[in-house]
Design a protein that fits this description.
By secondary structure, the protein is mainly alpha-helical. It is built from 7 helices and 2 strands. It has a two-stranded antiparallel sheet with strand order 1-2. A hairpin with a 6-residue loop joins strand 1 and strand 2 (about 15). The longest helix has about 30 residues, at about 160-190. The protein starts with a strand and ends in a 9-residue tail after the last helix. About 35% of the residues are buried.
């Protein structure tokens, strides 16, 4: 599964794989999976119009924010994630291991992705749970449940497991787009306490 990256310096799209992002994280000595990082960035992008990753690093890392290649790549991921969600063409995809990876690995990484997405939403500090619409609240609750997902190879038929994974992945993909659209609409709505003259 490929994820497109748009750098601030170029309008060209480059493809980056899950494994490439994982490698950059490992080289930086950061104990996050590529899915966790992408999930957290996606949550932050949904919750705030600014692609400032500062609040995110304080939630994800116990140390200082990363520098160098990882910082630049994370910034590019944020820009491209925002671009894909703003387009509203359903082009957004969670960054996960390739389809030839074991179903157990992909399931665990999707669970981590959802958990980190929720952390990213919270890191923004702009989402009031009580102000969320019913639909967003339900999706967030579902993501919380998916974050607890596991896979028991002894109990699962491989074809059924693949089908179930595909359905959940599609739900997550569409759910992120819906969360983005509703939160963006709420951010764009004028404050009723402000009088415009």
């Amino acid at each position: 599964m490929f994820f497109s990256i748009l750098t601030r310096d170029s309008a060209n799209l480059n493809d980056i794989t899950y494994d490439e992002l994982r490698e950059v994280l490992e080289q930086a000595g950061v104990e996050l999976t590529a899915g966790e990082l992408h999930g957290a960035i996606s949550g932050l992008v949904c919750a705030t119009p600014a692609n400032d990753l500062g609040p995110l690093w304080s939630v994800l890392l116990s140390g200082p924010p990363p520098e160098g290649a990882l910082a630049g790549l994370a910034d590019s991921v944020a820009v491209q994630t925002a671009h894909l969600l703003e387009e509203r063409q359903m082009g957004f995809q969670p960054l996960l291991p390739e389809d030839d990876a074991a179903i157990n690995e992909r399931t665990q990484e999707l669970a981590r992705w959802c958990q980190s997405f929720l952390a990213g939403l919270g890191a923004a500090g702009t989402v009031n749970k009580d102000a969320m619409g019913e639909q967003v609240g339900e999706i967030v609750l579902d993501f919380s449940r998916i974050s607890q997902a596991g896979f028991d190879e002894a109990d699962e038929d491989p074809e059924e497991a693949e089908n179930a994974f595909a359905e959940i992945l599609e739900y997550v993909r569409v759910g992120v787009q819906l969360i983005y659209e509703e939160l963006a609409a709420n951010m764009d709505a004028p404050d009723p306490d402000i009088t415009v003259h």
